[in-house]
Specification:
This protein has 60 residues and is mostly helical. It is built from two helices and no strands. The longest helix is centred in the C-terminal third of the chain and has 31 residues, at 29-59.
Length: 60
């Protein structure tokens, strides 16, 4: 996984956790859902990059 892609996915995950936390504190279900969605997107990005790494290892 490239460092840049990993950093972007990690940042999105942190942003999602913060947004979900704010939603939990304020009781706003929209913020909660949006935060969870961002965390899900970050997980997918991490998975895609991990698959790319494995394919590259297999080719090399």
């Amino acid at each position: 996984m490239s460092a840049d892609d990993k950093l972007k996915a990690t940042a999105k995950n942190i942003e999602g956790k913060i947004q979900e936390g704010v939603g939990n504190i304020t009781g706003d279900p929209k913020d909660q859902a949006a935060g969870q969605a961002k965390q899900g997107e970050a997980k997918v990005q991490h998975t895609v990059e991990n698959v790319k790494d494995e394919v590259k290892k297999a080719i090399d």
